[in-house]
Amino acid sequence: MAVVERLVQSPSDTIWEVLGDGWLYPVWVVGASRMREVDDSWPAVGAELHHSVGAWPALLDDTTQVLECEPGTHLLLTARGWPMGEARVDIRLAPEGTATRVRLEEDAVSGPGALVPRPLRSPGIAWRNTETLRRLAFLAERRR
């Protein structure tokens, strides 16, 4: 799995508010371009975000589903992005004083993306997720 971490200068409950607002997903997730629908129960287990990836006019509609949720501390997601496949995304929040360490682990679990050897796919995922955490931090730090 590709793992990235960032110390966000914001309390974990503020970061959780951003994660819990499914309509913000394309603002902080690199590659997501628009939201089509957010299940009312988001981010409860089984809830889905209905999003699109890519750039107009080449948009692909797909979903992200919650597999595990520990409110305020942990989200485990299956992010679909066909035709590339599916990825498992594990987000963990750990308070550190007035800040929060956000850890994001991701790896391809099915489809063509999973056929790429891990040493070749992990750097690209880590690069993308470094920017994803930067965007998440901007949103959370501006809410204080």
From TrEMBL:
InterPro entries: START-like_dom_sf. It comes from the Bacteria. SUPFAM superfamilies: Bet v1-like. This is Polyketide cyclase / dehydrase and lipid transport. It comes from Nocardioides scoriae.
